[in-house]
## 1
Amino acid sequence: MNHLRRIAWSALVGALTFTTQLHAQGDWTVSFGAGGAREIVHSRFGTTETRLTGSLFNGEAVVSRHRFVARLRYGQGHVTSDSTARDVVEGELLAGYMARRWLQIWLGPRARTFVTSGLSDRRWLFWTGGLSARGGIFPGRVDSFVELWQAFSGSLNRPAASASGRGVELGLEAMLPGHPWRLRFAYRIEQGRLDDGRRDTVEGLTLTAGYRLVR
């Protein structure tokens, strides 16, 4: 678990350093953000169902040039119920193409790991394709957005099996005119499942403050 966290944080710090260097070269848009999420995890394994709630800390970095964009997100936290507790680590590394100013196409891996004291990690890993769209509510001040993704390949490590997954995220992003700061509020729901009916469903509310550089 600690090894996974070190790798993820090293990747995030490296991405932030790399985006700063790219910005200095020109023709790049780079941004980074940090925030928190409140999550509800519904798990069903066989006849056992659990509901856990908790908070996560999130970080992200986004790099774009012309029509191409890359996004790294990482989060970690803790969810609990009356009878159990789990650490949670989640992340994604996506490459995207801006088909329109308001429409982006995404490809890449998304992963989530649950760790219960005394038990081995339970890891969901998905290779996904997705779409995201934006619309101006108050142009230049407030935008709405929605993102949909579907796994075309996935796996769960315990029990080892192929898995399916999908998710949706939607919300609002507010910008300060003439300033690089942004505030994003989002709701998302994602699910990973096996053919035998075992599944994890995650709902979350996220608040993220971001800083954007345009060259």
## 2
Amino acid sequence: MRLTISSTFYNFTLLLLSLVFVLLCAVSGSGRVPRAHVEGSLPSLHQAQNQTIRKSEPPTPDDPQVKTVLDKMAAAGIALPITVADVRKAYLFYPKLSGTPESVFRIQDREVPGPAGNIPLRVYTPGSTSGLPIAVFFHGGGFVAGSLDSHDTPLRSVSNRCQCIVVSVAYRLAPENKYPAAPEDAYAATRWVAEHAADIGGDPHRIAVAGDGAGGNLAAVVTLMARERGTPPLIFQLLIYPSLDASTMRPSWWTESNAPTVSRESKNEILSMYLPVTANLRDPFVAPIHAENLKNLPPALIITYKDDAPMRVESEDYAGRLTQDGVAAKISLYPAMIHGFFLMAGDLDGGKKCIDEMATALRNAFNRKSQTPP
């Protein structure tokens, strides 16, 4: 059952919280954010596009590889992407950090029917064997950036290491196409893969979903959609530093949001491009963490990183709720990494490890399914 909290009531409550915060700051005279402050999200989300955006100063990283990557990003002008233009520029740059692309047995670009036109896919096939398991992958990029090309190099590696078909989905991006365009495309592509698995050499009974960042959100949302709509059957979900909550109301966004590549300001600005003004931030298809229950979902591996407290806390909370509802869930925590490290295996050992862990987890899930009696 979908949560049906009134969007108008919820948004009005958030506005009142924001006004209380302003009054508190005025009374204190300090102008500093109280440690336990909870932000009213929608008033911050829907700023005018030409409004000046304050940029946080990122910390100095401890890992020398991360420092080198951040220096390269700074030189490219993408050290802390906030606007849509910033994020799109960053996702054009990230492939330079992905390393040398591996050869794959077959790579095919195709288009499949979607709710508002065809959806581009890229299908990676590691060998000539038929009946291979399938991982449907949704790229990151804050719902406004990313493409089949931005994630090409790591997905080649995942396909080869896992010996599975990887289907990369180019869902519609905001602000040109706001919510629910992205999740509906993601679901339609996944359903098409299940219904046409044999056409691409795959096994319709061994399908997993995966994604990084915004793509991790979409992978989680697709599992909820599949459960609610009765199809397709999914056996695993792999979420890489996923965005699971659409607001920045958690205190950690104020007290510990100091990651070098993601800030409270950037999340609010980008989500304002993705969500309509009338969006309900507690809609599970916007924020999976607010689903009424997580029962009967596929097992999950959530890969995240230690130094981004707010997003890490979201992942830990989500894994805890999955476990409480009887779903096997594991958190894999990477120390000293930054948002986007899955795309940076050419420069970061953590990126290489992430690809290997992803491939191993998918392979294990597929093998467990193949050994399960019908």
## 3
Amino acid sequence: MLTIGLLGCGNIGHIIGKFRGNWKIVALYDKIADRAEELVREAGGISYRSFDDFIRADFDLVVEAASVQAVRMYAETILRHKKNLVIMSVGALSDPSFRNELVSVAEGEGRRIYIPSGAICGLDNLKVGRISPVSRLLLRTTKSPSSLGIPAGERTLIFKGKANECIKEFPKNVNVSVALSLACGRDADVELFVDPRVERNVHEIFAEGDFGEIYIRVSNLPSPDNPATSYLAALSILSLLNQMDDPLVIGA
């Protein structure tokens, strides 16, 4: 059975902890120690008050469900301790030098870094962009003004540019743009709107290439216990974990 160390014990951590899959959480760490101790009562395992103690525990894989900052602080150490790594806060990989360094460390240590699909769909087929170049790649995201803390009385474009620039301005809100860019092997164009009429986060993906055209629209419901978290994003981690030991892999 796959054994997991959970880094970050907030809303997504609780969703992972409640699910019973073909894996087991054996270690938990959060910078707010009480969060980890609370989650132990649901998920089992041992909570650790220091990251150093956590990473020395005996398990196979770290699931990061914390923050971009946590990835920057701990990812290299995780890999050097011979643990594979699932990164939820994929915005941390928008920095090419940091990303390349992590990939180099993973290769040197014989480890793997996994990126869940998060709050969008279609990353499996969009990976063809690494083989046959994509001529157009656009992510158009629409959110409520309150979710970004930006007042607006009508639909308003607040960002237009590349994914690696958008994530700098909105580090907690457009991780999907970085995941999309990594999947396709090129920096995605991003249009970010706020609209007081929407209640859900809406992500639209437009892609064109020799294969034809792709249009994907995802309208996300929030997590039941935290309106700031996409439920689909949390579920995508569970799907990834479930297929790691599955002898039949679909859409890889």
## 4
Amino acid sequence: MNYTLNQLQIFLKIVKTNSVTKASEELHLSQPAVSIQLKNFQDSFEIPLTEVVGRKIFITEFGYEIALVAEEILNLVYAINYKTMAFKGQLIGTLKFSIVSTGKYIMPYFLSSFIKQHQGIELLMDVTNKNKVIESLENNQVDFSLVSILPNSLNIESLDLLQNKLFLVGNMEKKYKKSELNYNLFKEVPMIFREKGSGTREVMEVFIKQNNISVLKRIELTSNEAVKQAVIAGLGYSIMPLIGIKNELQNKELQIIPLIALPIKTVWKLIWLKGKKHTPAALSFLEYLKKEKTNIVHSKFNWYEQY
């Protein structure tokens, strides 16, 4: 049996995704390359690992048994790598994050150089809405969370990373002058909201309530990307974080509506439970952030400071 670790990894990914196409996307490989490696792996066994019915791949009972063993083998290989790195004095372990959905435009830039410097550290990042982020932090399931609105119910510590600016945005169908604008605009066009539990929705609703604004019609969507596409398509306007619309502004698919009371400003904060006993990897990351965050903001978010 002349199969390789690479074939074990590919087969395990196919089992987990039930798809050669999805496996190739997640592994950043071409679909033909994945198919060839699957065939080579299958040739090591006399019993089928998969079967194709129509155009869909199914894992056989024997295939699932092999997948369990493959996962054990790969975990042992990772353990060997970690022990090797530990003996060489390198940081090892896993960093676990939960971040609000628009945080995906921010957090990778604060992580990239650190992860490259410490190859023995694995990264797990759950991107979800604010309520679920706070729940995972409260249950001590993560090392850190990224939010723009601090939870009132938890005793936490925090580190400021970047200012969060939220603007009213629309597509390019109509041009506005600042002198022409007032809150009556909200009576003229539908407003697109994120789902309940979203931090962006919370900020938007507070703004509407504080300014006693009447909204013509509400449309609710469950992701920042969905809201963005709906605004581009002309379904309505929305109050959105600037961080998530860089490309659309540059490509002139969206415009900022210059309403005088905006932007709304909060701060993206990395938070963790007060008194949490951080792993060496987590402590090292915190030290790295305190030292490098200003340089990261200047080099990666220079465009952002212009608004």
